[in-house]
Specification:
- This protein has 14 helices and 27 strands.
- The chain is of the alpha/beta class and about 425 residues long.
- It folds into 2 domains: about 170 residues, Glutaconate Coenzyme A-transferase; about 240 residues, Glutaconate Coenzyme A-transferase (3-Layer(aba) Sandwich).
- A hairpin with a 4-residue loop joins strand 23 and strand 24.
- Helix 6 packs across helix 7 and helix 13 runs antiparallel to helix 14.
């Protein structure tokens, strides 16, 4: 959308929120860039509004607009469901769209997902008038380019992150100036003792598949953080990932990650958003190592495949004996979303020397449930098809499924399941003739 230059109106949050009318759609900046000041002001108006559609990816603060009393005033369209709206989605008070992170911009640009107003959380403008999208570009830049009205909270504490990650102040209709800490994301779980030893086995197995000169994609959680601790002896690693967190910084500062052998944008840490703390926010501020771009670039499988030795590390809630992966639901109940899992699995699969990896602990719920199951739970979604799966890793080893028959897959997956469940899995495999005596 071509937007003429204008004089931005600097207003209070309450006045900025008044731009929203009943029946309109509001796209909300995602992740740690959630525009809390604007959204709190909007929620105060709930009684005078009807059917305002809040379009969002994940966010990590409270979501007051998802409360039961907000029904009829606010609708929610979730593109990746976080804990703060999961209850609303599973109670039918909010909608979820299954979609690859790489294709959300297509939905926006094609008007299949129309946006009237975009709420952003930006850095202050530089001397040329450009505000950075800061620590979260994802689909928000695309949303701003396809929105009728742009409203931004401009935060003195939002870092200026480089790349295709800017919007000119003249494009912003209403701006609210704030000076507040950027919301931080802390892993809710730290593995200790025996549990940590399990994760370390998985991390060591993953590290063994990573060659010098590889380019990494990693998600959030204990496994990606622990993997990074086993890479200190590697050389010339690169990064092309939809997101990362604090633990990446140590490998950059030590020189393990330098991007010198990357075949796409060498020397650059290419990403789209951060889930982290002030430590990484401060490190990234005006740092030319980092190149942030929208997900239509970062998550595009063809773009990903241009990185030789691309390593994709993802996880699962459940995998069946043939290799089907469920990572976004527990039975019919929505848990998260597609995100970039399949984007990166397919990109890594097509990379020269690339390796798509699925990694998870063999059990859940205190060891009472096997993540490798005879079949997915009734109603569960297939996030990644069995034809896309290559390496599957638990604390019991590595199963390479690519190009393998059902019989070979079943045997490999049983071998890395928890020993307490192997007999049950094997019994089922014989019953359905996956295996024969």
């Amino acid at each position: 959308m071509n937007r003429n230059k204008k004089n931005t109106r600097f207003v209070s949050a309450d006045n900025a929120a008044k731009v929203v009318r009943s029946g309109q759609s509001v796209y909300v900046h995602a992740n740690c860039s959630y525009p809390k000041v604007l959204m709190d002001a909007l929620c105060k108006r709930y009684e005078e509004l009807k059917d305002v559609n809040i379009i969002q990816l994940i966010s990590f603060l409270d979501a007051p607009y998802s409360a039961p009393e907000m029904e009829g005033h606010f609708k929610i369209t979730s593109l990746f469901t976080g804990a703060n709206v999961r209850k609303a989605v599973n109670e039918g008070r909010a909608d979820f769209i299954p979609v690859f992170l790489s294709e959300i911009p297509i939905l926006i640009e094609s008007k299949k997902l129309p946006i009237d107003i975009c709420f952003l959380h930006l850095s202050p403008p530089d001397e040329h008038g450009y505000c950075s999208f800061g620590i979260s570009n994802e689909c928000s830049k695309t949303a701003s380019e396809n929105s009728e009205i742009i409203v931004a909270q401009i935060n003195k504490q939002m870092p200026r992150v480089l790349g295709d990650n800017f919007i000119h102040i003249d494009k912003i209709d209403y701006a609210v100036e704030i000076d507040e800490p950027v919301p931080e994301f802390h892993n809710s779980k730290e593995a200790q003792g025996e549990e940590r030893a399990v994760y370390e086995k998985i991390g060591q197995s993953i590290a063994g598949l990573i060659e010098d000169g590889s380019t990494l994609q990693m998600g959030i959680g204990i496994i990606p953080d622990i993997v990074l601790q086993f890479l200190t002896d590697k050389k010339d690693l690169g990064v092309h990932t939809e997101m990362f967190s604090d633990h990446l910084i140590d490998l950059i500062e030590s020189g393990v990650i330098n991007g010198e052998r990357k075949t796409l944008l060498p020397g650059k840490v290419v990403s789209s958003f951060i889930l982290g703390t002030k430590k990484v926010f401060d490190y990234m501020d005006d740092n030319p190592v980092f190149e942030f771009r929208p997900t239509y670039f970062v998550n595009d499988p063809f773009t990903i495949s241009r990185n030789d030795k691309m390593i994709s590390i993802n996880s699962a809630l459940e995998v069946d004996l043939t290799g089907q992966v469920c990572a976004d639901s527990i039975g019919p109940k929505n848990y998260s979303g597609f995100g970039g899992q399949l984007d990166f699995i397919r990109g890594a699969a097509r990379s020269e020397g690339g390796k798509p990896i699925m990694a998870f602990t063999s059990t859940a719920k205190g060891g009472t449930v096997s993540r490798i199951a005879p079949f997915l739970k009734q109603g569960a979604g297939v996030t990644t098809t069995r034809a896309d799966v290559h390496y599957v890793i638990t604390e019991y080893g590595i199963a390479d499924l690519y190009g393998k028959s059902i019989r070979e897959r079943v045997n490999s997956l049983i071998s890395i399941a928890h020993p307490d469940f192997r007999e049950e899995l094997e019994r089922y495999a014989y019953e359905v003739k996956f295996l024969r005596k």
